[in-house]
Every structure is written in C-alpha cells, then in structure tokens.
Amino acid sequence: MPELPEVETVRRSLAGRITGLTIEKVELRLPKIAIALPGTLFTDALGGRRIIELGRRGKYLLLHLDGDETLVIHLRMTGRLIHLRPEERGAPEPAHTHAVFFLDDGSLLRYTDVRQFGTLTLMATAAALQQPGKGRLGPEPLAEDFSFPDFRNALAKRKTKLKPLLLDQSFLAGLGNIYADEALARAGLHPDRTADALDDEESRRLYDCIRTVLQEGIDAKGTSFRDYVDGEGRKGEFQEKLWAYGRERNPCRRCGGEIVREKRAGRSTHFCPRCQK
DNA sequence: ACGTTGTCCTGTCTGC
DNA sequence: TGCAGACAGGACAACG
C-alpha cells in the first residue's frame, strides 16, 4: 500500500528519469481511472505536454506539466508506475496495465493497478497543490513548518481515537494503515487512546515517532509488504524493520509481549497490548 | 463531531 | 483437490 514513504520513493526514482521529457502520446486502456478537466479528453489533453517537475503531497504524486497543469496520481493500494528505458520497452506488458505514456526519448511509463482503485487526474497546478483530492489535506508530517506545538494543539481538539485519527488525511497527510500502526507502536501508545487525553510527553513521543518512522521508511525505500515497487520496479526494505504491522503472534521488539491484530474502524490494527498504553 | 458501514476491485488465502 | 466465501484496504459517501 503506497503511503507517504512509498510515494516519495516513487517520486525520487522517477524524477531523474522523466523530468524534462515530453509526453508524445497516451494510451488509456481503462478510461474510468482517468479524469480530465471538464469538456476535455484526457489523452488529448496530455499529448505534447512537457513534464516540468515531480512533486508529492501526502500520498498524491504530482507530475507538474507545462501550461500550469498537473497530473495528480493516487496509487491507492495496488497502483504501480514503472518507467522503461528505450531498450526495455519490449518487456512484456504486465496484466492490468491501464495507461501507457510514450515519452519523447523513446521510453515508456506504464501505469498498472490490479484493483483499479487508483486514479489519474489532470487539473490546474494551483488546485493540485492546494487540494489534490476531494477533501482538504492536513499538514505534511515531514515539512519543516509542521511543528510540535501545532500538532499538540490539533490533538487537543480531537476526541477521537488515535488509530482512526492518524488515518484521517485531513488531520495529517500521508499515513496509511502500516505507518499509523508503526508510529503508535514506536510511541508506546495504544490505538484506542483518545487524542485529547494525551499529555505533553505522550504527544511529543507521537510527533517524534510519526516523523521518525516516515523518514526511516523513505530511507529504506518503502515497505514492500505485498505489491509495492518503486518507479524502477524495485522493492523496498522497510518490511524488515516493522514493529507491529504484519507481526501478529510475534514478540514485541520492545518488551517481548505478543503482538495482536484486532479490527479498528474496519481496519486491521496491530499493536502490543503490554507496552502500548 | 464521531463512529460505523458500504462501495469500488481482484488476487490470495481459508475453510469445508 | 475444488470451490465458495472472506479478506486486504484508501478515499469517499451515507447514515445513526
């Protein structure tokens, strides 16, 4: 599941390969995944556009194009964006390839998605930077201006439990099920704790652990628990460093207690009942 | 404001 | 072994 560290890794792996190239043609095999500006055809709108820069906001990958428009890509769970150099473009096309971008250096960008949940949306760059999805996005957890006092104040305003709160993209952008569980595990906080009941020290731990776990995820080039690979088709390594996610019935790395997996808000939630209080 | 459920989708796993 | 059903989940809508 591409979360912030995975999307950032895709961004970095693609940036050096496709920045500055022009999209000559797009083949869209599954039209429902693509959304263009009203009254325009997605494939027509992208042809001839130059890729200026690759950005990211939360879990959204942003391909900034000339003409002040941006292709907003959300990979959801199983989306993949793989770049093939000119000499690699004969490689067999994977199943579930929904869009192919032909670039002017002879290379290809293939978009595949088994579950068809991901989306490609073309919109004005200003709109993409402000709000790439339907709802408002919360702060970027790794940005310099994401301060502890702000986070502490935001926590104090919310009566909801930590697990659903961390998954709420309007509260904080970029955490998904894996990194939410990891941040809570590292912070030693129970997923059912109520946000406004955290004291200063606990809030500080959560703030620090969210940032640490995301940065370590990026450093390890993402978590390849099931499907995820970067823009060059490479798996990440953070799955080897997880404390909680996917480790049910295994010993807690901090206290040796048994990690459990229980449903919270419809999602599997992994934690150590002994040391996450 | 908060919590839950349903929707989308298909590959993989589980149970009989 | 084969098949049916459950499960995985990010964003969003709808409802209580």
From TrEMBL:
DNA binds at residues 96, 115, 158. Monomer. GO terms for biological process: base-excision repair. Its cofactor is Zn(2+). The gene is mutM. The active site is at 2 (schiff-base intermediate with dna), 3 (proton donor), 59 (proton donor), 267 (proton donor). Involved in base excision repair of DNA damaged by oxidation or by mutagenic agents. Acts as DNA glycosylase that recognizes and removes damaged bases. Has a preference for oxidized purines, such as 7,8-dihydro-8-oxoguanine (8-oxoG). Has AP (apurinic/apyrimidinic) lyase activity and introduces nicks in the DNA strand. Cleaves the DNA backbone by beta-delta elimination to generate a single-strand break at the site of the removed base with both 3'- and 5'-phosphates. Residues 243-277 form the FPG-type domain. It comes from Heliomicrobium undosum. Keywords: DNA damage, DNA repair, DNA-binding, Glycosidase, Hydrolase, Lyase, Metal-binding, Multifunctional enzyme, Zinc, Zinc-finger. CDD domains: EcFpg-like_N. Residues 2-118 form the Formamidopyrimidine-DNA glycosylase catalytic domain. One of its GO terms (molecular function) is 8-oxo-7,8-dihydroguanine DNA N-glycosylase activity. PANTHER family: FORMAMIDOPYRIMIDINE-DNA GLYCOSYLASE (PTHR22993). It catalyses: Hydrolysis of DNA containing ring-opened 7-methylguanine residues, releasing 2,6-diamino-4-hydroxy-5-(N-methyl)formamidopyrimidine; 2'-deoxyribonucleotide-(2'-deoxyribose 5'-phosphate)-2'-deoxyribonucleotide-DNA = a 3'-end 2'-deoxyribonucleotide-(2,3-dehydro-2,3-deoxyribose 5'-phosphate)-DNA + a 5'-end 5'-phospho-2'-deoxyribonucleoside-DNA + H(+). Its EC number is 3.2.2.23, 4.2.99.18. Belongs to the FPG family. Binds 1 zinc ion per subunit. This is Formamidopyrimidine-DNA glycosylase.
